[in-house]
Amino acid sequence: MGERNPQGWQVRVRGLVQGVGFRPAVWRLATESGLHGEVLNDGEGVLIHLISSHDQLASFLDGLKQTAPPLSRIDAVEIVECSAQEWDGFSIVTSTSGTVRTGIVPDATTCPDCLNDINDPKNRRFGYAFTNCTNCGPRLSITQAIPYDRANTAMSVFKMCKDCQREYDDPANRRFHAQPNACPQCGPRLTLVDPDGQELPGDALEQAAKQLREGNILAIKGLGGFQLACDATNAAAVTTLRQRKQRAAKPFALMARDLAQIEAHTHLSAVATAALTSAAAPIVLLPVRAGTALPSEIAPDQNRLGFMLPNTPLHHLLLQHLDVPLVMTSGNLSGEPQVSDNDAALGRLAAIADAWLLHDREIVNRLDDSVVQMVSGQTQILRRARGYAPSPLRLHAGFAQHRPILACGADLKNTFCLMKDGQAIVSQHMGDMENDRTHREFQHSLALYCETHDVSPETIAVDAHPGYFASRWGRDHAAQNDLPIVEVQHHHAHIAATLAEHGYGPDTPPVLGVVLDGLGFGEDETLWGGEIMLADFRGFKRLAHFVPVALPGGEKASQQPWRNLLAHLLEAFGPNALHDINTQFGALPVLTRLEAKPVDMVAQMIVRHVNAPLASSAGRLFDAVAAALGVCHDEIRFEGQAAMALQNLAESEPSEPGGYSVENGAMIHWAGLWTGVLSDLKANVPLSRIARRVHNTIASAVCSGVVEQSKTHGKLPVVLTGGVFQNRLLSEAITDRLRMLEFDVLSSQLFPVNDGGISLGQATIAAALSLRG
User: Fold this and answer.
1) Domain check: are 670 and 717 in the same one?
2) Could you tell me if 606 and 474 lie in one domain?
3) For the chain, which residues score pLDDT lower than 70?
């Protein structure tokens, strides 16, 4: 029998424990157990005072872990014995301010209980588009400050009616202190307006559905920003949306009413289903089902479709009025951030939309839809935003004593990261830093994060690239505030991000890192992108890399794959490459297409090193191969288009085991690959088989490079990272081969493997350097 004398306890719970119904869960458990005390929110999380015996305390804590609300995440529980006080029962008390150490919970998709409410004709929230409770609804998108109380959210302007207030005040109700709580009597309302901003008659949702059925394009104010929608089965509507949005080829996302509608067009696995139905409700990339009725204009030259389920009551109710899935893409002009304000939407989307479905709840923080795919049977995040951000990453305990850090990220797929108290808070996807609107969005969101998390950075970390906007801004900010600056090599940051996600500490021994991406600024001031490195948080050594090949025209080489093809052929076969190839392999169609380009001028640029920087880029290698096979030969219309098309081509040849020979060592040369590709083209081998052989060859070369380096450095864990590892076929091939060779393989799942994870790596590197003994 354990000791039963009651005494006082203070229990501190850290993690994602505010705005998720944690206090009422504590109240219910304590009340059912007959314990006296109180629970409150403060800047550090949840604070509980109890009078209990040791046995009762242990039982209470076990019960708390088992019954914690679904959106909560307990990172730490700290118990301190204190003097016993007189409490009359157990109560929930008002939040207090103080040092902020708790996180903001991500926005969550509509829970089953709220879905039942909006579908029940007897419920007062029947058909109400802003129904929520503590288990679902907006969080980050409406948060202005911490603690997460109604006064600190966009809901502060909506005064609750008596019925909503009663729910809000009742600890036994699932809407207890649900800050966005509202109903048709007191909450936000929908309106459907025309291009002049005039409200259209009739029920807003019914009329919006009518617009979609008639082939029109609808701008919808969603959870984190505006979306553009049209009937996904209407090829003409999809084409019109492409033309108006000036989005020539990039795939559109889709929203379906339910899983059955998704399965009619794609193949669903258990892992994909779990992702679709999770609280995050991301866009999930799924294999296309043969015979789908959806037009090819949705995702030209792609073998996958990006589907999501409705993530708000508004979307659920709209889809209930329709029998078809919808295209549901971001509401913006090409290259700009998503519009989030009503007036801005009416202005900036005027040339795209035919009608606007608006509401009067402010979007404080813009959030794009998150995107995931399945790799090796697990979920890989490609874009981390709605539903995932800004859930903090609790780092290895060795990082606990670092000073506050701001990491500014990269210029493509930008995120920033704040590090404080052993946690990394990575922002939602900011986008590509190519215009002033994205710059302003970056600065607005950063200011808000610093305020809501009470962070005053004492160190700034940036990418070493001298031209990145995020890096220039970080350097200027550090200079203006007299703060130390840490410049981090791009690929080192990629590796560190994966190590941090997997719980490695600042004193972790080095690992072997394979980094394949478009390019990053190297420590030798050349461009890197196909690297095998020995790295830990505090440093790295470049062990092997792809052969550097010119990027003729600089940035143009990233937009016109034929330039990369020419450069690779000249590197592999010498200055007379085209003549020699014609002699050896005959007049191949690829040569005919190249000869229509200004090849002599571009070749001279390469020979004279004029605007033709060398780069060991894996991304540009894929572009070159795609061009050789006639895929996106002339130009690409969105980042990664050629590589994605090459992957799709290869995946249509699933059983091809062959490959080409390559020269492997400290520098991986591709002359053997190009000889094999040209020989196969001469022999009229199917292009899909050639594409598959290229993937096999690159995978084999990378694995051989890892094995060779392990002979010197030992069989270390291997990190696979960089944007090229979004290529599922290549990623799985390399992972499977290395695991067969009994290597421990680490890859990112919680954070993007692309540049969206760079800020996490920068922050942890800066922290590790500051903690050096």
Assistant:
1) yes
2) no
3) 1-5, 97-103, 773
Contact 38, 95 (CB under 8 A): no
Q: Tokens for 295?
A: 């037009």
DSSP output for 371-386: EEEEETTEEEEEE--T
- CB of 497 within 8 A of CB of 515? no
CB 515 within 8 A of CB 495: yes
Q: Provide the token pair at 748.
A: 């990112």
What is the per-residue pLDDT for 2? 42
CATH number at residue 483: 3.30.420.360
Which pTM was predicted? Answer: 0.94
Does residue 392 have a cis peptide bond before it, meaning omega lies within 30 degrees of 0?
no
List CB contacts of 401: < 8 A, sequence separation 6 or more. Answer: 771
Go through the chain and tell me how many residues it has. Answer: 773
Single-letter residue type at 264: A
Strands 226-231 and 218-221, sheet pairing: antiparallel
Per-residue pLDDT at 98: 62
Tokens of 371: 């995107």
CA dist list (Å): 490 to 80, 504, 702, 721, 723: 44, 19, 19, 11, 12
C-alpha 521/C-alpha 543 separation (Å) is: 16
Cα gap 557→533, rounded to integer Å: 26
Domain region containing 404: 396-508+752-770
Cβ neighbours around 584 below 10 Å, total:
12
- Residue 105 belongs to some domain of the structure: no
Q: Are residues 404 and 300 both part of a single domain? A: no
The structure tokens listed for 351 are 């040339």
Ordered alpha helix ranges (H), 453-468: none
C-alpha span between 557 and 627 (Å, rounded): 12
Closest CA to 652 of 700, 627, 689: 689
Amino acid identity of residue 721, one-letter, is: T
Residue 399 to residue 381: CA distance in whole angstroms:
24
User: Distance between CA atoms of 311 and 319, rounded to whole angstroms?
Assistant: 11
Cα-only R_g, the chain: 28
Question: What is residue 286's DSSP assignment?
Answer: E
The two structure tokens encoding residue 282: 């991301």
Which residues, in sequence order, are CB contacts of 577 under 8 Å at separation 6+? 569, 570
Q: What angle do CA 382, 384, 389 make, to 5 degrees?
A: 165
Position 272: which residue type? A
We report the CATH number of the domain holding residue 76 as 3.30.70.100
User: In whole numbers, what is the pLDDT of the chain averaged over residues?
Assistant: 94
Q: Who's near 308: CB < 8 A, 6+ residues apart?
A: 253, 254, 255, 256, 276, 281, 282, 283, 284, 328, 369
- Nearest CA to 359 out of 192, 502, 560 is that of 192
User: What are the structure tokens assigned to 770, written together?
Assistant: 């500051």
Q: Which two tokens stand for residue 601?
A: 């001028």
CB 265 within 8 A of CB 244: no
Give the bridge partners for 542, in sequence order. 533
Does any domain span residue 113?
Answer: no
Residue 142: inside a domain, yes or no?
A: no
- To the nearest 10 degrees (0 to 180), the angle between helices 490-501 and 758-770 is 90
pLDDT at residue 738, rounded to an integer: 98
Q: What confidence tens digit (pLDDT) does each residue in 672-730 have? A: 999 999 999 999 999 999 999 999 999 999 999 999 999 999 999 999 999 999 999 99
How many domains does the chain contain in total?
A: 4
- Pairing state of beta strands 459-463 and 485-488? parallel
Task: Report H helices in 266-333.
Answer: 270-276, 313-320
| Rounded distance between C-alpha atoms, residue 33 and residue 24, angstroms | 14
CB 276 within 8 A of CB 269: no
- What pLDDT score does 136 carry? 96
User: How many whole angstroms separate alpha carbon 98 and alpha carbon 644?
Assistant: 49
Cα–Cα distance for residue pair 178/133, rounded to 1 Å: 5
Phi, psi (degrees; rounded to nearest 5) at 4: -120, 5
Produce one character per residue of 175-184: b if its CB has 16 or more CB atoms within 10 Å, e if not.
bbbbbbbbbb
